[in-house]
Specification:
mainly beta, 8% helix, five-stranded antiparallel β-sheet, 1 helix, Jelly Rolls, single chain, 51% strand
C-alpha cells in the first residue's frame, strides 16, 4: 500500500466568518507541527454550520481504501465540551460524518473513512467541518490546519512515466 497527502485548494462554500482555504492549507505532514498560525473560524453566528473546502486530486494513487483527515483546532470560549464534526465527499457522495472533540487548547484529531474508491473519485474530494452549537458570544471555534492522507494502490510506473513524458513535452 502507498499513501498520498492532499491539501485544501479551494473554498466549496463560504459560510464561516473566516473561511479561506489559504488559512488552513499549511504544509504540515505530521500532527506535531503547529502550522503557520492562521485560522479559519466560526463565531456564534455560525453555530452548527458546516464549512466545506475543495482538495487536490490524487496524483500518485490509482485507487484508495482509506482517507484519514487530520484537523488542528481549538475552541476559544465554547460552553461545555461539545463536539464538532468532520465529513468527506468522495465520488460525489458525502460519507457519514464523525464527531471530533477538543479540550480548550489547540489539539490535533484525526478521523478515518474507509471504502473502495478509484483515483477519479477524488477529483471532487471535499472536507467539511461543522462548528459546535454553543459558541459563546464574541468567541470563536478555530481551525488551523486540515489535510488528508489517502491510502491505496500506487499508480503503475508506466502511468507515471507517461505523465512525466507528457510534462516534458510541454
Amino acid at each position: 500500500m502507498a499513501t498520498e497527502t492532499i491539501r485544501p485548494n479551494g473554498n466549496a462554500n463560504t459560510l464561516w466568518e473566516a473561511y479561506a482555504y489559504t488559512l488552513i492549507d499549511d504544509v504540515v505532514d505530521s500532527p506535531s507541527s503547529a502550522g503557520d498560525g492562521t485560522n479559519a473560524y466560526a463565531s456564534d453566528d455560525s453555530e452548527s454550520v458546516e464549512q466545506k473546502w475543495d482538495f487536490e486530486a490524487l496524483s500518485t494513487l490509482s485507487s484508495a481504501s482509506s482517507v484519514e483527515v487530520f484537523v488542528r483546532h481549538k475552541d476559544d470560549g465554547i460552553s461545555g465540551n461539545p463536539d464538532s464534526a468532520v465529513n468527506v465527499k468522495i465520488g460525489g457522495s458525502w460519507q457519514t460524518g464523525q464527531n471530533i472533540s477538543y479540550n480548550g487548547s489547540y489539539s490535533w484529531v484525526s478521523k478515518t473513512f474507509n471504502g473502495d474508491w478509484s483515483a477519479s473519485d477524488f477529483d471532487d474530494f471535499e472536507v467539511g467541518i461543522t462548528a459546535p452549537n454553543n459558541i459563546s458570544r464574541n468567541r470563536e471555534y478555530l481551525v488551523a490546519v486540515v489535510y488528508a492522507v489517502v491510502t491505496g494502490e500506487a499508480a503503475s510506473s508506466t502511468t507515471n512515466e507517461a505523465f512525466l513524458l507528457f510534462l516534458d513535452s510541454l
